[in-house]
Amino acid sequence: MKKRMALNLLLVFAVSVFLFPACSRNTRTASTDPNAPGAANTASSPSTASPAPNQPSSQTPASSQAAKSGWWVRINPGATTAQMITFQIGTSKLQREEWRIWNASEPAEFDVPEKYSQAPRLYLRGNVTPIGKLATLCLMYKDRGVEHMSFDDDDSETKSQTEIDIKCR
């Protein structure tokens, strides 16, 4: 009986060693420390500030406007109940990277990174926080909607510049 209990405790410990880092990896909390991960850095401009490798950027100037000269994203704040949306971006599911975290207090329209702005095909993946809350957005190319996305966990799409989705006007 004692051996079985010791084995169960060892098993629980081993599982927690693997699950705890996986669960806490994407958790971001507000902090008053300006050097804390995820804290806004007002001392540097967005063009010079770069997140750690494989970490999405949460820095978006509050006054920035989407140029809309290539690919861009429009969040529907009236239909979005999620507090945050974490985005990955790339040219395909296999060639993607962490991009940014959008918070409900930020502008609802924003351009994709310059290196993807004119890409013929774009892969976009969004994950909501908390899970179960809704994100509704449109992936846009210049003046037209390419893909309407609405999800309460995660969703991803690969689209080309020439596609049109009439739900995004």
Over the alpha carbons, how many angstroms does the gyration radius reach? Answer: 19 Å
Order of helices and strands: HEEEEEEEE
Percent of residues in helical segments?
10-25%
Q: Describe the biggest sheet? A: 4 strands, antiparallel
| Percent in strands | 25-35%
SS elements, strand count? 8
Strand order of the largest sheet: 4-1-6-7
What characteristic shape results from the CA principal axes? elongated
Distance between the termini: 66 Å
Mean pLDDT: 78
Tell me the quaternary state: single chain
Low-confidence stretches: 22-53, 57-63
Category by helix and strand content: alpha+beta
The total count of helices amounts to 1
Please describe what this structure looks like.
The chain has 169 residues and is of the alpha+beta class. The chain starts with a helix and ends in a 9-residue tail after the last strand. It has a domain at 71-160. The longest helix has 23 residues, at 2-24. It contains 1 helix and 8 strands. Strand 6 (135-141) and strand 7 form a beta hairpin. It has one helix at 2-24; strands spanning 71-75, 84-90, 96-103, 109-111, 121-129, 135-141, 144-151, 154-160.
